[in-house]
Amino acid sequence: EKYLSLFEKPFSDAPVAVIEEVKGKLQTMQSENPIASVVVVAHNEETRLLSCLWSLSDNLCRYPVEIIGVNNNSSDRTGKVFDASGIPYFFEEQKSCGYARRCGLNNAKGRYYICIDSDTMYPPRYIETVIRELERPGVVAVSSLWSFIPDNDHPKWGLRIYEMVRDLYIRALFIKRPERGVRGMVFAYETEYGRRVGYRVELKRGEDGSMALGLKKYGKIKLITARKARAVTASNTLDADGSLFNSFKVRVVRGLKNFSFFFTRQTKPPQDEESNLIKD
Question: Are 212 and 197 a contacting pair, CB within 8 Å?
C-alpha cells in the first residue's frame, strides 16, 4: 500500500520527503565491490519508476550490491526520476527490452545480474533471497513468482484464482522447460554466463526466455516459490486479451496446446514469429 500511494501518479506529485528518503537509502546500499548488480530498466515509466525504486530502497540485504538503471530512450520524465534517485544510470537509445537489458549487463560490476522492471515492486527480502539461491551449487539462474495489482478491470479475487492456476503451470514448466517459465522482471543469473549467451535485441518479447535457454548448458535454472521473493507488478500485460476471464481462457488454450512441454526438454531456439520481430 505504501508504494502504491505513488504508483501511476506524475513524478511532480511525489513528496520531496519520499524522494529524499529513497535517494538516501539507495546511496547507502551502493557498494564499490558488489556481489550482485540490481539493474532497473525503464521506458516511459515516469509514473511507476519511483514506486519501484522505493521498494528496492527498503530491501534488507546482507550482501554488497549496486543498484543501477537503464533509461531506454524514454520521451517522458523517466530520466528525471533516475536523476532524483541518485543511482548511476545509462541511456540506451535503441528501443527494446533486449537492448535495455544488454546495456545493463554490459555495465554491471556484480557476479550476479538481477533484472528489475520499473513497473514492478519488490518485497523487502527480495534481493537477499535471490542472491542466496544463486549461491547454491550448480545453480546458474533463478526466477520467482509474481502477483498483479488489482484494479477496476482486474478484481482481487479474480487475480488470486488466476495466479493460483498460473503458478501451478509455471511450476510444471520448470521441471523440463524452465526457459518457458522465467519472466524478466523476476529473473537473475550469473553475469559472466549471461555475457557469453547475450541478449537477443530484435525480439519484442521473449528476450528473457532466450537468455534462459542459453544459460541451461551452464547449470540449473531454479524457481523460487517463497513469498519473500514474490514481486507485485502492473496488470496491463493482461489487457491485450481483454477481460481477465478471456486472459485466463487464452492462457489455458495455449497451455493445452503446449502440453508436450511438460515432458520434453528444449535444446534449440524455437522458430521466430514474424509478429515478434522488431523491424529496422
Answer: no
Kind of pairing between the strands at 146-148 and 120-121: unpaired
Residue with cell 549467451: 197
Alpha carbon of 111 to those of 37, 54, 157: distances in Å? 8, 24, 40
Determine contact, residues 166/247, Cβ cutoff 8 Å: no
Q: Are strands 139-144 and 220-224 parallel, antiparallel or unpaired?
A: parallel
CB-CB contact of 69 with 90 (8 Å): yes
Check: CB of residue 98 under 8 Å from CB of residue 202: yes
Rounded to 10 degrees, the C-alpha dihedral 59/8/37/128 comes to 30
Going along the chain, which residue ranges are E strands? 36-42, 65-71, 89-91, 112-117, 120-121, 139-144, 146-148, 187-190, 220-224, 231-233
Q: Which pLDDT tens digit goes with each residue over 1-52?
A: 899 999 999 999 999 999 999 999 999 999 999 999 999 999 999 999 999 9
Q: How far apart are CA 198 and CA 24, in angstroms?
A: 33
Please give the sequence-ordered ranges of beta strands (E in DSSP) within 134-196, or none if there are none: 139-144, 146-148, 187-190
- In this prediction, the residues of the chain whose per-residue pLDDT falls under 70 are 239-263, 267, 269, 280
- What pTM was estimated for this model as a whole? 0.91
Side chain identity, residue 256: L
Residue 114 CA, distance from chain mean position: 8
CB contact set of 268 (below 8 Å; sequence gap of 6+) = none
Angle between helices 16-29 and 78-85 (to 10 degrees): 60
